[in-house]
Structure formats: structure tokens, C-alpha cells
Amino acid sequence: MALSIxxxxxxxxxxxxxxxxxxxxxxxxxxxxxxxxGPAVQRSGASATVVAKRDAASQKQAPRVVTQVxxxxxxxxxxxxxxxxxxxxxxxxxxxxxQPEGTTVPGTSLLCQRMxxxxxxxxxxxxxxxxxxxVNGAHDPQGTGSMGLWGLQDKGTSGTRLxxxxxxADVAYGVLAFSDGSSVKAATVGVPGTDYRAWAAPIANGxxxxxxxxxxxxxxxxxxxxxxx
Length: 229
Fold this sequence. Notes:
It is built from two helices and 14 strands; from the N terminus they run βααβββββββββββββ.
């Protein structure tokens, strides 16, 4: 469950509409056996060349999903982790959701945010594609600019929680300051080959957020929010 200020509506629609699984395998093609005569050997060589080209193409297409760990550690005695998954093409079994007005949500690729606390994936009740959003390729601006609190109870407003931001390109890190005077800093991590990035920080049970600040690489503060709790 989560409290997010950007992608919540799209993510909910995706979770409701998505079905099935992902097929990541590629078929292997075997060359036919070569007869003993000279001309047949030439034909066998041609087949082997075609097979080699197909195998090379399959290897190039093999990375169907790019996964990048954003952050991980321990909080309240539990392991936590956040990763982004980018599917260059819509995975098999995923269907673009329909918007309230009847149109289909646009997208040629899929960006998923996988968050775990104590080995349990947040929003797993929504199915395989919960916390995923359709995007157009590796550089869609819709994949940036959001921030949210996520947890396993009360929509991320209590208990052990995670703060996850998908910031603009100039944000190098985020800092959570708590009302007890403590703070936690989290560096922005990008998904290779894309413009998608995130930072993630844990929030222990009972902690209250006083402010969330984001900084560039020169430590200049870019944003300052005090409405998170």
C-alpha cells in the first residue's frame, strides 16, 4: 500500500487490468545434419551461417528486462530493498489499462517499482504488475517527478515504511529529516540505458518526518517539503 503524489491512479489501473506472466526465453535452432557429398556440405555451411545470425540476434534481444537496485538495508530488524525494472517492450501477459473515459493508457514499455519490507513485496495483493506504469521507451518524462510513502499497512502512513522518489535528472540525493533530530540520506541511482532513476530511504516505526529535501551534485538544495509525516 502506498501514499503517492503522482502515479497512484495509473498504477491502480495497471494492477486491475494486467494478467498473465512474462516470457523471457528464446528458442534454439539446430542446423540440419550434413550429407557426405561436396555440394551438400556447402548447403550445410549456409544453414549454419543463418543459424549463427539467428543466435546472435537472440543474444542481443535476450535482456528483456533491465533491473537496477536503488537501495537496500535493514530497518526495525527487517531487510528492505527497492529496485526499478524496465521492460523495453510490453511483457507478454500485460495489457494496457483503460482510462475512465474509455481510452487506452499509452505506452510501448513498462517501468516497475519493486519494494520489499521483511521479504514481502509492497502491493503484492495487486498482482504481478502492481506498482508498474506504461511508458514510451527509455526516455519518457512521465517516469520521473513523483515521490511517495510506501508500506505494508495504512497506505504507508504508519509502521515501517519506505520513502521512494523518482526525481528529475539534476537531483543527486535526498535527505529525510525526522522530528527527533535524526536524518537519513539516500543517493539517486539510475537505470542503465534509460532516463529513469530513483532514491529510496527507510523510515523506522514511530518516526515522524519533519522535512524531505533534495540536492544536486554540488549540495545545493533543490526542493524542500514539510507535508510528509
